[in-house]
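2024-03-11 09:14:02 DEBUG pipeline.ingest accepted 1 chain
2024-03-11 09:14:02 DEBUG pipeline.ingest length=333
2024-03-11 09:14:03 DEBUG pipeline.predict start
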Amino acid sequence: MAKKIRVEDAVGQVLLHDITKVDGDKFKGRIFKKGHVIREEDIPVLKDVGKDHIYVFEIKEDEIHENDAAYILADALMGENTYHSKEVKEGKLTIYSDVFGVCKIDVEKLNEFNSIGEPSCPTIYNNTVVKKGDKLAAVRIISLVAPKAEVEKAAKIAKEAGGIVKVVPFTPKKAGLIVTGNEVYKGRIKDKFEEKLRPKLKKLLCEIEEKVILPDDQAQIRDKIKEFAQKYDLVILTGGTSVDPDDVTYKAIHEAGVKNYIRGNPIQPGNMLTMGWIEDTPVVAVPAAALFFKRTAFDIWLPRLLIGEVISKEEVIKRAHGGLLEAVNGEIP
């Protein structure tokens, strides 16, 4: 229960919440911290931010203060390779990444967590590539004081999920690159894919260890896929994935015995991207769009492939929402 008293009568009282100041668009932040003992000289400062009165709370046994709730909820939400800010500010704790990797949000459990009532946790998008120190989520309760039962229920949901926010780190990987096409094999044109793909891979700790150029021969391509899948963490192919009857790369991938074979996806640019897995090794054919556009379907799936995830056909279908990449500004997951 809250008791309202004049600030002039508040000297010696302990603040039970942070008090913030907003100065136009120049400043927004905390000027008094929870636990601060009000002094005589604080009275004009409080009045300057519109505080003619303060509230002294008597927290009941079945209630919990926002700061205490923030610690309980943050600890429950955090999964592998995350940490939270040391100090609560304005009732909020921020969760950060402790590694370079892919942020994984259990969206279903997050929705369940946020449906409880008082607990609130916004996050970044699932499958976003993050660096060490990047913000992942922020957690607080809506009010200054909340029912303990709600906080405990939300914390239980997060704990039983093993944490709702985690990061899967990138580890050094090696890739084999198979460039296909009679025109490249016979030297009529120079391969441009390697110079486009190598920086993308290197940025995610993956190096192209070996490159071969093959003609449009289905058997040769098939055999090289099998060989590279045994030698490297990732097999990348270029060329031969269009609707032209002479294009055989996608056929060779299928013939190589990949599992979870997926030809095409509802993402543009990069509709013709083809992928599958030989045992645990992803095999992906990159369409020509990667030569002309900064961001294609390959960029969407690459981080996931490099942390060892297997993409399902159902997930590929769902990626149509937001899949028109040319129309999306900024970084996307």
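2024-03-11 09:14:41 DEBUG pipeline.report The longest strand covers residues 206-214.
2024-03-11 09:14:41 DEBUG pipeline.predict end
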